Amino acid sequence: MSTFKNEEGFTFIEILVSMVLLSVLGITIWAGLINSQGLIRKIISEASMSAKILQLDNFLRQNANKVKIPFWEGKIKTERGESSLAIPYLNAEYEDMLIFKISRDMLLIGSTKTGQFNAFGPFNNIRFQLWEGDGENPLGVKLSISSGKKGNDQVIIYARFGGNPL
């Protein structure tokens, strides 16, 4: 018969307590990882929307700069529809018009001469209008868009027509 005078090791209770502590630690780490994944998705989504808005801003300013209204013209005649706006004198030609259209949640910007449109979006709320100063002729275009789901993150872009001093 053998007897152990010096028993070394952990009791069942000690092992159980250590397993519970490791489980709590593991669950805490797991919850942190899940929250960080959601945050990463949100950051990527907002960065993507910011890139879309910057592309729109660049394209809008380049094309608005091509609208050259003669100084002798009185108030120019724009064509407005329910969800469209056409501005003459694109590339200093009366027949060529800079056109803005809304199709569902996309903004289309193009020209009557080429018939090609560039699409930007999707955006929740799109509004455009002439940016009018004190004089007869408009200074440019004012574009207001909301990109978020709640619509509370409105971005306003002013694009000046070419040849118009401020």
The radius of gyration is 31 Å
Percent of residues in beta strands: 25-35%
Count of the separate structural domains: 1
Q: Terminal Cα separation, in Å?
A: 106 Å
Proportion of residues in helical segments: 25-40%
Q: Which structural class matches the secondary elements?
A: alpha+beta
Task: Trace the largest sheet across and list its strands.
Answer: 1-2-3-4-5
Most strands sheet: 5 strands, antiparallel
How many DSSP helices? 1
Q: What is the chain-wise order of helices and strands?
A: HEEEEEEEE
Shape: rod-shaped
Low-confidence stretches: none
Nearest-integer average pLDDT = 86
Number of strand segments: 8
Explain what you see.
The chain has one helix spanning 12-64, and strands at residues 79-80, 84-87, 98-103, 106-111, 117-120, 125-132, 138-146, 154-160. By secondary structure, it is an alpha+beta fold.
Summary tags:
alpha+beta, 166 residues, 28% strand, three-stranded antiparallel sheet
Summarize the structure.
With 166 residues, this protein is of the alpha+beta class. The protein has one helix spanning 12-64, and strands at 79-80, 84-87, 98-103, 106-111, 117-120, 125-132, 138-146, 154-160. The longest helix is centred in the first third of the chain and has 53 residues, at 12-64.
